[in-house]
Amino acid sequence: MLFAGTTTYSIAAQDMVKPVISYILSVDTADLSGYTIKLSIKHAPANVTLAMATHHEYDDRFWRYVENFTARRGPVTLEYVHMKNAVWQIKSTGDSINVSYRIRLPLAYPYHPCHRPFLASYGGLIGDIHSFMYLVDYENLPVSVTFQLPGGWQIATGLTATSRYNVFTAANFKVLLDCPVFAGKLRTWNFVEGGIPYKIVYLPSPGAAYFDTSLLITNIKKITHQAVNFFGAVPYHNYTFLLRDSTYGALEHINSVTIGASSSMLAVNMQELYEELAHEFFHTWNLLSIRPAEYTDLNYDPQQQSAGLWFSEGLSMFYADLLVRRAGLPVEDSTRAGHLRALVQRYFQDTGNTFIPPGKVSLASNAQPGMLGDYNASTHLQGELIGTMIDMITRSSTGGKKTMDNVMRMMYTRYGYGKGFYPTDIENAVHDVCACDVHGFFEKYVYQGCELDFNKYLDLIGMKVVVRYTPAKNNKNLPAPDTRVYIFRRPEDSLYRIALTTPNSCWGHAGLHTGDVILAINNQPLKSPANFYKILQQMAIGDTVHINILRQAIVKTANVIITGYQTPVVSIVPLDKINAKQKDFFRNWEKGN
Questions:
Q1: 317 Cα distance to chain centroid
Q2: Share of the chain above pLDDT 90, in %
């Protein structure tokens, strides 16, 4: 949509002089409910289209929090149209213009995702995709940002520093929108790995618990060394680990990572951080560099989906565990066989994993519940297990000379510099590394989604999986009630909906389906998630739960009779007869060689 009476020109025609773009982001301690952004566009195009980009994984739709939008050319206020959601179009004449708007931060609960912006008296997280509008059709232009912050606040970011402490630059909008900014009373440490400078930055909350910072730094350096040594090259000129107190989660960025690292956790069980940090750091290569073909650099339309996300997420899980082991750091499962046993058990717990193709699960991984019907399945889990089986095949086919490591490095060589991949490209890379026919494996387990035949591949290392089913137990070792449901809200409404993890639960047997709107539970309106989960916690086998739902404009009532349920118990044990080759393969696999 353009303004009535305007003319569309080609970029070449209107770009005799390219626009020069700069931002000022201002934080005022008198009002920490948001921050103000001023955007200057010198030599603006005849019609200016600004947009807030959509993140591939966590689309927080921050365009909803834009307020006080204005556009001016000198003292003249310019006409603009707020188009579809994340897009603003300004009627310009090709002269320089100034745009101003405010980001009103949504209410932050005591703990919220670490990647989401916030402000407090001691600092905050600002910038990146949540803050800056980009100039559509001019994505490759360089930009600069000036931060006007309270006195005493420091800045840490992956943006390029200048001679002025509060001014940074980005080579293009892609970089600008993927470089979050820590601002506040920071703790910072520096180190060098392979000639590349790294920063570790911690933003503590008031009253933060004491933890061993020297141990934290040492172990982050070990993980960094393992990842850099693995690939032998890095896709960045510097890297920043942004660790934040009193929050959770983690998110990879082009040359940084934001990660929740509560000081209370670091004080007593620092190893909880290692695998999550390794996973997000590995994404720097396997997701941001080795990128699914469907992912574009910048997009303001709905989230893009990829059928290859099982590789990006699953293999990053595979290597998160492996890199931490290779670094000699403690892991949750003391052995690789123990880790694999836990993965296989989770695989069978959510039966959707056993028949829904990884490509379909990948497409649903960042979507609202319902794309997989009444089933749950995990692209991370499926991908890690497929990667484990590929590792077995590669070891066997090459006499132990090559492993999944060689496949990943080949993927980086072929696709690590902007060329996106499709699932068939993964198959080709495996084939070229192992010099063996893997089409049958990919056809059956990746494209069709058949249940993984673990024993066929574990036989190569002299092991087998044993699965038995037993009644699920609670923490008192008594039969557990079937509570395999949860609730969610769609972005466009305020209604709570139910989601099933399997139709073979008492909830499915009562006729409920994922997406049903819950009107009332036990004759009481559902007011909050806490209300729902409190009822779940109080349920006992034999109870009846009455749920009033809305489905396709029809009100229905479901009477859920709570039952117990069966859960898989998995063991990984040696075969009865094991030859020397199998023993050798197992030793090397278990060591992570």
A1: 12
A2: 88
What values do phi and psi take at 446, rounded to 5?
A: -95, -50
Q: What is the CA radius of gyration of the chain?
A: 26
Q: Is 120 exposed, middle or buried (0-12, 13-18, 19+ CB in 10 A)?
A: middle
Tokens in use for 365? 């991984």
- In 254-356, the DSSP E strands lie at 256-260
Helices H / strands E in the chain, number of each: 16, 29
**468 and 521 in contact (C-beta within 8 Å)?**
no
The string of DSSP codes covering 455-477 is: HHHHGGGTEEEEEEEEE-B-TTS
Tens digit of each residue's pLDDT (9 = 90 or more) over 290-310: 999 999 999 999 889 999 999
| The model scores a pTM over 0.85 | yes
Residue 101 forms beta bridges with which residues? 37
pLDDT category, 493, cuts 50, 70, 90?
Answer: confident
Dihedral angle sign, alpha carbons of residues 173, 177, 180, 181:
positive
pLDDT of residue 2: 35
Pairing of strands 566-574, 463-471: antiparallel
Q: CA-to-CA distance for 311 and 386, rounded, in angstroms? A: 9
Residue type, 12: A
| Cβ neighbours around 477 below 10 Å, total | 7
373 φψ region: left (φ > 0), alpha (ψ -120 to 50), beta (else): left
Nearest to 536 by CA among 567, 513, 505: 505
The DSSP string of 345-375 is HHHHHSGGGGTS-HHHHHHHTTSPTTTTTT-
Measured distance CA(29)–CA(334) in Å, rounded: 47
